[in-house]
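User: Large ribosomal subunit protein bL25, Petrocella atlantisensis:
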Amino acid sequence: MEEIIIEALERPKKSGKFKEQGFVPGVLYGEGIEATTSVKFDALVIKKLISHHGSNAKVWVQYKGSKKFGFVKEVQFDPLSRRLLHIDIQMVAKDQKIQLHVPIHFNGEDALKINQLEFQIYKHEVTVTGDMTLMPEAIEVDVSEMALGDQITYADFKLDESLVTDDLELVYGVVNHLKVLEVEEPETDVDGAEVVQPALVGEEEE
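Assistant: Predicted structure for Large ribosomal subunit protein bL25:
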């Protein structure tokens, strides 16, 4: 597993909005942390972390001379600007069992359309419990060669046997017929002009 190290800096607890340019506020908690600790991170580092490793990235956090292992528990974005607002990192022992919501990326959907099929997604993530070091950052599923009626269940993710879920029988997506919306062509006369239907008696003109 790639070792990703990010540095956390002390952030005094203050009322009001965090306005320090170039940094994003966050908290550390969990294994080896006595109480939830307010920190700040370099905003560019966090953006790259989320972009390359996803919202469940496993990281080593360097803080006040010590280095602890953990994972990104929650990321908050502004719903309009998508500006990064806050990040929570939970510290864990490397052999600690945790429960995590792992995102699923379905690939190859365009290939199905050639056969007039489409993949209907029911759920974009799976809840998994197990060893932190075995947790994938995301699950990649290729649906390009699936046939009509084929479904995706937990067994298709091919995760380590020690990783378990309560949703073994849950269907995460299924292949259906491609739905094509038909657009009615307006009626035209012999000269190609659109025919306007006369309003019926009693109908209000718009």
